[in-house]
Write a structure and sequence with these properties.
This protein has 14 helices and 7 strands. It has a single domain (18-31, 52-318), classed as sialyltransferase cstii, chain A (Alpha-Beta Complex), CATH 3.90.1480.20. It has helices spanning 19-30, 51-61, 77-82, 88-92, 113-117, 134-137, 148-152, 181-186, 192-202, 214-225, 238-247, 278-281, 287-297, 302-308, and strands at 95-101, 121-125, 143-147, 168-172, 208-210, 250-256, 310-314. By secondary structure, the chain is α/β, with parallel strands linked by helices. β1, α5 and β2 form a beta-alpha-beta unit. The structure holds cytidine-5'-monophosphate. Cytidine-5'-monophosphate (C5P) binds next to α11 and α12. Residues 102-105, 125-126, 237-239, 258, 268-269, 279-280 line the site of cytidine-5'-monophosphate (C5P).
Length: 321
């Protein structure tokens, strides 16, 4: 690169991981927890796509959808009481400028709060709080994307913490590669369905969607197809899923601290003391390769990444494919 700013290298490979993370990476790569068929495994031989081609591939190959009551096992009276009648895109409508706020420790001391809140919609992840951190992360929460582990584990107090009470909730859970709804329903990674119902009973007026499990594997496929090595056979992180979700409804999306700024740190989350480089570089999730993809489609400058941790990507409606 010609840029004087040292930012995320879009050709990052597993070789750049430290010894411990490389071992963890290889361990996850050797597993096939979600039963991906053999022919789907391993790197693809494809030409190096341009940013525009990548964006169009994302738009065309990943169908962002939330669960409705059309398909079994959700076509029951019980599920009709719980699931929203509108899908998420209908509910959000079309938005202009959106912000996706990663939970990385490096957003600390960023003073990005006001900039983040100036967007028409702000997406946050899992247990990421705003109170006490407003000056760095803002206070507006339009959408909160939560994984099923956060919903299920006692430490997050998902059912009664006010943290989850603002904005629209969207939940996801790693599903079998087949994305077979019945198979997933009977054996989710974490008990997403029971927790979802319980939350809806306790907070009946809050909008709450479940991401269709096909989304995670369609997105995984785009990551693998554009990576020169075999990636972990696990779903992408909430971070990339959230960015994709906003790209499907917004004209433009700013993604904060997904590509680390000059504040890059081993601090896992801005709201915790826990330190682990795996949070930024990936272990279970193919996060390293997700970041390569975002760097490749970024339309902002390297200086924006370096100073603000900000990547800028166009929404799907703004593309000419
Ligand atoms: O850890 P959690 O999944 O709640 O964080 C939300 C998202 O923020 C992650 O899925 C990941 O994409 C991103 N993240 C990151 N670097 C970190 C922590 C989180 O890129 N250090």
């Amino acid at each position: 690169g010609k840029s004087p700013w040292r930012v995320w290298n879009e050709n990052s490979s597993s070789d750049m991981l430290n010894k411990r993370l490389h071992k963890v990476f290889k361990m996850y790569r050797a597993m096939n927890k979600y039963n991906m068929p053999l022919q789907k495994q391993g790197p693809r031989r494809s030409h190096k796509r341009s940013a525009q081609e990548l964006l169009c591939q994302l738009r065309n190959q990943v169908k962002v959808q939330t669960l409705g009551t059309q398909q079994p096992p959700f076509n029951t009276q019980e599920w009709a009481m719980f699931l929203p009648s509108q899908n998420l895109s209908q509910e959000l409508g079309s938005l202009k400028n959106c912000a996706v706020v990663s939970s990385a420790g490096s957003i600390r001391n960023s003073h990005l709060g006001r900039e983040i809140d100036s967007h028409d919609a702000v997406l946050r992840f899992n247990a990421a709080p705003t109170s006490k951190y407003q000056s760095d992360v803002g206070k507006k929460t339009t959408v909160r994307l939560t994984n099923s582990q956060v919903m299920a584990s006692d430490e997050f107090r998902f059912l009664d913490s006010p943290l989850y009470g603002e904005g629209i909730l969207v939940a996801w859970d790693p599903a079998p590669y087949s994305a077979d709804l019945l198979e997933w329903y009977n054996k989710p990674d974490y008990p997403i369905f029971t927790r979802y119902k319980e939350y809806r009973r306790r907070h009946p007026s809050q909008s709450f969607h479940i991401l269709h499990p096909a989304v995670q594997w369609q997105l995984w496929e785009v990551i693998q197809e554009n990576t020169g090595e075999e990636i972990q056979r696990n779903p992408p992180s909430s971070g990339l899923l959230g960015a994709l979700l906003m790209m499907s409804v917004c004209e433009q999306v700013h993604i904060y601290e997904f590509l680390p700024s000059r504040r890059q740190t081993d601090l896992c989350h801005y709201y915790e003391k826990f330190q682990d480089a795996a949070c930024t570089m990936g272990a279970y999730h193919p996060l390293l390769f997700e970041k390569n993809l975002v760097k490749r489609i970024n339309q902002g400058s390297d200086l924006d990444i370096f100073q603000l941790g900000r990547a800028t990507v166009p929404g799907f409606q703004s593309l000419n494919c």
